[in-house]
Amino acid sequence: MFNHILNNDFVDIVKGRRSVRHYDEDFKISQEELSEIIAEASLAPSSANMQSWRVVVVDTPEGKEKLKPLVRFNTLQNDTSSAMLLIFGDTKGYLYAEEIFNTAVEQGKMPPEVRNSQLETILSIYPTLSKEMKVEIAKIDSSLFAMQLMLVARAHGYDTNPMAGFEADQLAKTFELDEERYTPVMILSIGKAKVAGYESIRLSTDKISFWR
Fold first, then answer.
1. Helix axes 112-125, 97-106, angle to 10 degrees
2. Which key words tag this protein in UniProt (predicted)?
3. Which of 125, 144, 160, 191 has the smallest number of Cβ neighbours within 10 A?
4. How confident is the model at residue 14 (pLDDT cuts 50, 70, 90)?
5. Mean pLDDT of 196-201
6. Contact 187, 174 (CB under 8 A)
7. Which superfamily does 19-195 belong to?
8. Rounded to two decimals, what is the model's pTM?
9. CB-side neighbour CA atoms (13 Å) of 79
10. Is the dihedral of CA 166, 42, 57, 158 positive or negative?
């Protein structure tokens, strides 16, 4: 018998999440609360704690008008959501390594000798990686962040929808980001559902697990 008790509130959040496409267009999430949601989602794990996710928050009519031609068949989310969150991976996230690890030492969360050792490893390896490897790492880290953001949003009482159907080759340039450095990962819409998302079916554990 396992002495493991799941937090029922968290399980309810996971089970209750739906992909919502039609939001209440009159409802607006404040920038303060959106910043709080992003900060909480940023507690997600990442490779070497580089936190290589970056978010462009599109929450103005002008921004949404600029985004609309790029989201293909996802215009309903763009038109009705409180915001569209453009998730990018920063392939040069290691440039923040010293700031991250120095702050950890200042806050007493890491001994100086550990910082020195880890920084030496990160700054000797990460810049030499191929562009393909940097993109892969950034996408994995940003996907962990995006999933956590969807659950955090749900805990705040909001709904989300992850999207891959957009013009990835135009997204960074359209929103004035360095195309060589920032790789588009996904777009998340966020807001209050006007039309509830439907419950979807999941494959059973025996179909997705391999026990050896």
1. 170
2. Oxidoreductase
3. 125
4. confident
5. 85
6. no
7. NADH Oxidase (3.40.109.10)
8. 0.93
9. 9
10. positive
